[in-house]
Amino acid sequence: MALAIPITLGMTFGVSYMLGIDLQQVSVATLIIALGLLVDVPVVAGDGIKRGLAAGLSRDIAAWLGPTKLATAIFFATLTNIIAYLPFLMLTGNTGEFS
Fold it and tell me: Using an 8 Å Cβ cutoff, are 62 and 52 in contact?
């Protein structure tokens, strides 16, 4: 879980670069919200692993079953966030350039 934030930042900046989105076009608030939502998935997966370990599962089994049992919830939470932010892609003018 300690690597979740650096990996998320790297992926965010990498995808932004590949899409040709300059960093100055992204508002700080949007970046903070997006990174917070993306870091939430490893935290939920980590909680599932800890729950498995507390139930007496081996480390390997807990590491596999913890996130797997929560995969549907993680998927729909991610999908909900994507759908919630899609309207920002349709903004035009100056507002669309900086959202």
Answer: yes
